[in-house]
Amino acid sequence: MRARPRTQPQPTTLTSRALRFFPRTDSAVVRKTLIGSLILGALIIAAIVTAVATGPVDIPLPNTVRAVLATISGESATSVTSTQQAVIERIRLPRVVLALGVGMALAVAGTIMQAIFRNPLADPGIIGTSAGGALGAVIVIAIGLSGSVLWIPAGSIIGSISALLLVFAIAFLGGRMSIATLLLAGVAIGSLLGAAVSTTILLTDNITAQREMFFWLAGGFEGATWTTARIVAPIALFGTVIAVVASRDLNLLLLGDDEARSLGINVGVFRIAMVILAAVLTGIAVAFAGIISFVGLIVPHAIRLVTGPDHRHVVLLSALGGALFVLLADTAARTIISPAELRVGIITAMVGGPAFIVLLMTTKTSRSSL
Amino acid sequence: MNPRKLKSVLILFSVLAINVAATFVAIGCTDEEPTPTPVPPTSTPIPPTPTPLPPTATPVPPTATLVPPTATPAPDYSAYLDVPGIVDPTNFDWPREVESSEGLIVLNQPPALAHFASQGHAEIAFGLIDTSRVAAIYSFFADPDISNISDHVEGIPEIGSEPEEVVSLEPEVIVVSKFVNPDLVAVFKESGIPVLRTALEGRNGDIPNILLLAYMLGAEDRGLELAAEVASRLDFVRQRIVSASAPEGERPSVLTVSDFGQIWAAGADTNVDSIIHDAGGINAAAEVESFQQISIESIAAMDPDVIIITQPMESGQVFAETLMSSPALQGVGAVQNNEVHVVLSRHFTTLSHWNVRGVETLAKMLYPELFADVEFKDFETYDPE
Q: What's the ipTM?
């Protein structure tokens, strides 16, 4: 039996490979990003209007508009009752802003993860940050500190960052971090922390606290206030801007470490910076909304399927798509069985699961990839 | 002897003899024929005819004299006739048979040790039998925020959720509710322990469950007592409300909520819905099916007259303050009228006859003037004395 001759690589330069991979000029990218942003932006505006105008309290649309304008201007609206004004200003608007921020943060985190791991199945939970955040929150509830609005987010953020540091510590054990080690460490730590979450719930004698833990883990925006919205939204926006700025380097990272390094990227530092950014975005989202699954996985995947793999538009469009997806999910969660509510995490899972299967099948058929 | 002295002695003996004979006649202790000798009026020791009893002294009914003092009337067990699960409700000897969706159970004698896998069943059992017959408790049975028997569980082994722990205690029967996992029940049955599964509804005092458990445990008399107490306490509240309150359409709307990170409301088809109805209120969350998560905005839309919070007091007070200070709820009747109350949640959230305490609490809250003269008390647990 003769050995099959190995195929020799084509003598191409790295730059030409990169250009073949991401062939569009800046203007083409800008045009595509602009069109996508306009479409998603229009959909987001429609979703915001729907979300703000819909709810258990019946508020006529003109009054809704007046209440929104009054909220923006800081003046009192005529012919709007105090209850209507309070519902719009204190309940619906902050909830909409929080949902947009969380969706944006999770989707951008997912995009970053998928890029740096060169794996379309990577999501914010893959390096253990979601599980770390969940453990932090569950511990806060278990020790009875959940009465204050900021303790659970604080615990969640501390948990996320701790998990990230632990993963990095393990990944750097050999003195040099590889993607495989980071990925495996993330999966292992994520599983370990998930077990710790379950153990904490089981060992908690207080049934009230146990219930609170379960419900928190299911994810939701019912606790939205302007305080939480004002924390999450700027961080999500800032993180998105950083990711957009880094999108060209994310593209180059897809070519492989050696190629990216040859093109002037300090791969190690860049990857660590991006992982930290993804962890912070995930942590802040988990901290204020609990575990909302599938956003970081499915939104970048769907955007990439429509626009191609170029991160110069995938990052921004994923941010907008994530915001739209979560806002729609939350609006559905609070209106489908109104006046009762569903958990938004349930909606995203119910929509995201089947959608992801469809996307996988479509991807397989079209052989599209990162 | 002097004849005159002899005559005097004879007369004296005669008088004594007559007196003795008269005494025997009077006390009816002689079988001898009564002496035909007429009794001189002056010599009789029998007291004169007794004076009539004062009007307050009720004459003893004639039938009372026919019944020996040790005999008691046969208990009326007709209440057991319609109890689902009792195979022969006329049989109060052993063996007895009860059946449920888990099959037929034949009990040759009163079970000396039984396990109650549901808190509601345990609360009923604690009212029927001595706690020495209770095999084990779970940790939440001892939680006063949740359980109505937390003061009475001392000395009873506490177990976890592992079914093997139950099996190791070797109870003669296990009682479970419809909420208990079928796989768990299968383990019990495969271990040879008969299982009775009954639906705890937390409605109308759960009287059928009281009677079924009483029958099965051989505590049928105590079962009748407890069932009668539950029924009479419910009737008392209902009748006062019906006789004196507003028509049904004008009754106060009540929203029952709890905050476990999210707000949960008790909707239709819940025991709390039944409690609200029995207490003379209307469930403001009737549109909600079962227990569901709602939002502050939903509370504003429901606009209840009264909000009751069923969760531990400390966190309940925090939640009450949150509701009272929420800008979106300032137009809600309950908030405007300061009718946001934290109640003892164990009276509302359990599924047993203790829900009647919830009815009483809420009725007094909704109609304070109707129940101003009443101080409702907790149910007693079983007391052999």
A: 0.73
